Amino acid sequence: MNPSTHPAGHSKYRHALAALALFAAVGASASSLAAGPGPATTITITRFAFDPKELTVAPGTKVRWINRDETPHTVASLGPTRIFASKALDTDDQFEFTFTDEGDFAYLCTVHPFMTGVVHVRKK
Q1: 60 near 37, Cβ under 8 Å?
Q2: Regarding beta strands 34-35 and 49-51, do their DSSP bridges make them parallel or antiparallel, or are they unpaired?
Q3: Cβ–Cβ contacts within 10 Å for residue 56, how many?
Q4: Could you give the CA distance from residue 99 to residue 23 in angstroms, rounded to a whole number?
Q5: Phi and psi torsions of 106, nearest 5°
Q6: pLDDT tens digits, residue range 17-75?
Q7: Which helix (H) or strand (E) holds 124?
Q8: What's the pTM?
Q9: Domains and CATH numbers, the chain
């Protein structure tokens, strides 16, 4: 669903952007943001990159990837067992995954393997 056409999604999207802008203004990196259980935490796909590239969340957190590029991308975990994998995401498409176990979960875009990221799941 496109946040700009959905009233509730639009508000959440604006708040997430405002929080990222605030942290950038005070010098904190987006990868230092920790999210607790509850609402989804968003990773944006833009300019052939995941933003933030690294994210730390608590177990039970839903992470949402939204493609803002004009080019299709995927989100797929790395490792011996692929624990999550999206379909090809067109512009404004999104994919969600809830992280229940602690650990470090590296992922990439299978279409553009130079695009990588990591979700760190840690108890607070």
Answers
A1: yes
A2: unpaired
A3: 19
A4: 24
A5: -80, 145
A6: 333 332 232 233 333 333 334 557 999 999 999 999 999 999 999 999 999 999 999 99
A7: none
A8: 0.68
A9: 7-121 (2.60.40.420)
